[in-house]
Amino acid sequence: MSETCLISVLMPVYDGEAYLGRALDSLRGQVTPPPFEVLAGDDGSTDCSSGLLRAAAETLPLRIFPGPGRGSWVANTNELLARAKGRYVTFLHQDDAYAPDRLARLAAAAAEHPDVPFFANDTRFIGPAGTVLGPWTPPLPDGFVSPADALEGMLVQNNFSVPAVLLRRDLIDELGPMDESLTYTADWDYWLRAMSRHGVYHLPHALSSFGIHAGSQTTTLAAKIEEMRRNLETVRDRFLPCARDLLPAAGLPFVFGARPHDASTPFFPHSGPCPDCCGASLLVGGSFHPGGQSACLDRGAAVRRVSHGMGLFRPA
Questions:
Q1: Three-class SS of residue 115?
Q2: Are 281 and 303 in contact (CB under 8 A)?
Q3: Cα–Cα distance for residue pair 295/278, rounded to 1 Å
Q4: 271 in a domain, yes or no?
Q5: 288 domain residue, yes or no
Q6: To 5 degrees, how large is the angle CA 283–CA 119–CA 35?
Q7: DSSP state of 33
Q8: CATH assignment at residue 120
Q9: Which residue among 62, 70, 150, 165 is least crowded, i.e. fewest CB within 10 A of its CB?
């Protein structure tokens, strides 16, 4: 790969044939992109994913790395992080997609703000057929956001989708690998580690699409209630001390969603009907958006309900 590669796109893949073509097409469709590479880690797929990747390598600057089938998207991502050659790194999961101008817009933002190591854009939720279900908008102002202001919004819940971020290579070297013990919140933990040190530059444009469907990791991992509880509480316990140090200095009250936070208050999801909004069968994230309603996801056919709980983030 050329030394001039600006952006590395990392794709951890496992049995993704149903949606992988859509993700790859979104890379082929990039308009006037900067020099980029695509690294795909195929973690022992048993479907046609490997063939789709090999075919895509004929039209994309794509390198494929077969994996041992560990069943961990986090470990797969860490392997790709170690191999990335770009000055910046971004991610694309097999059921997600990019807007045609995403890489060009990110490259322009990075060139305009060379001292910023962490960028994030807005996202759209999409269904199995690619239908837009709703917005995913972080509760952050546009432009650069300080560590204190970023933590206030991001400790409520993970407000950046995996395909929405861009990290500079030296920031990744500073942070090290993602935490492989966190099957559900490794990305949230990583974003918080970055923002607590350097803040984030927020691009208020929906340049990424996040796939919602019955077989998605968001759905299947969220069904493991005790594991999800452990993941969420681990991130909470790591970053609450940092938030308490930063937020008073910024003159900001520390609230967890719409509710004042108490360290003794449990922060975990639970099964059963959602008490605040649409009666969905499973709560996702165990946290609350600024309106006080639970972020929820019905694991049945009505996946469009996800936009009700997770798409109303920008405060009035």
A1: coil
A2: no
A3: 10
A4: no
A5: no
A6: 120
A7: P
A8: 3.90.550.10
A9: 70
Is residue 66 within 8 A of residue 39, CB to CB? The reply is no
Which structural domain, as residue segments, surrounds residue 64?
Answer: 7-219
Spatial separation of the C-alpha atoms in residues 173 and 210, rounded to whole Å: 27
* Residue 71 CB neighbour total at 10 angstroms: 12
Q: Using CB atoms within 10 Å of the CB of residue 296, give its burial: 0 to 12 exposed, 13 to 18 middle, 19+ buried.
A: buried
Q: Which tokens hold the place of 115?
A: 């001292």
Please spell the DSSP secondary structure of 255-314, one letter per residue. Answer: EETTEE--TTS-----BS--SSSS--SBEEEEEE-TTSPEEE--SSS-GGGHHHHHS--S
Structurally, the chain folds into a number of domains equal to 1
- List the Cα angle 94/98/100 in 5-degree steps: 140
Around Cβ 173, how many Cβ atoms within 10 Å?
A: 9
Q: Where are the alpha helices (DSSP H) in the chain?
A: 17-28, 49-56, 73-83, 102-112, 147-154, 169-175, 186-198, 217-222, 225-246, 306-310
Would residue 46 count as lying in a domain? Answer: yes
Q: What is the pLDDT along the chain (316 residues), one digit of tens a residue?
A: 445 899 999 999 999 999 999 999 999 999 999 999 999 999 999 999 999 999 999 999 999 999 888 889 999 999 999 999 999 999 999 999 999 999 999 999 999 999 999 999 999 999 999 999 999 999 999 999 999 889 887 888 899 999 999 999 999 999 999 999 999 999 999 999 999 999 999 999 999 999 999 888 777 777 888 999 999 999 999 988 877 776 655 444 433 332 333 333 333 233 333 333 333 322 333 333 333 333 333 323 222 222 223 322 223 2
Q: State the number of CA atoms in the 13 A half-sphere of 38 facing the CB.
A: 27
CB 73 within 8 A of CB 14: yes
220 contacts: CB under 8 Å, gap ≥ 6: none
